[in-house]
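SEVERITY: medium
COMPONENT: batch folding queue
REPORTER: lab tech (J.R.)

DESCRIPTION
The queue accepted two submissions in a row. Attaching both inputs and their returned structure tokens so the on-call engineer can compare them side by side.

ATTACHMENT 1
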Amino acid sequence: MFIVCVAACPTGVAHTYMAAEALEMTGKKRGHEVKVETQGSMGAENEILDEDLARADAVIIAADVAISGKERFAGMVKLECSVSDPIKFGDAVFEAVEQEVAHG
């Protein structure tokens, strides 16, 4: 599966990047291709492009603040969670999104 993700925390520093790393590592461990966009104090980095959206099976939004561009995920299988969830419960986050895709 190809899963796009957005990570964002209130200060846009530590937890944003910790969540991004956890999403990438857990996704890879579970056999997925993952692209993580971070939204933080430095703006958006590693932005999800239209071609990413066109081939994505699902999106994970791990954020404790409103994210920019949320409307681009309309109609997609989507899991929204706290920015700390991928750090603490990475496998559970991916299991939930895998179930959503499987049972669409």
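ATTACHMENT 2
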Amino acid sequence: MNDQEEAALSLIQSHRQGVRQSDLWKLLEIDSRKCSRIVKRLLDSGLIERIEFREEGIKTYLLRAKKRAIDPSVILAGTEILPCIGCDQECTPEECAMLLDWIYQLALEEYQE
């Protein structure tokens, strides 16, 4: 992925409701044809979705980032899942004993390998 594609994807991801394709090229400060090619590559790679959108009778497209599945190994330390997933406590991560224990377990696994 080139720099402009990364910038476009980042911009689309930063807008939860999506970005109109007619606005994207202006935000990226590129011409609309180049923007269309970038959007096509992002669509082909499955990173975004494009939804037809009408505004004041003019057809455009709303671009939204697709949610990607999380790699389970990211939230596992051995057989223990990241404690923050089901946690309902108000805490700061730097002071959370459960999180620190989980990180310690993760570091221990890395060291043993």
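NOTES FROM REPORTER
The mean pLDDT is 87.
No errors were logged for either attachment.
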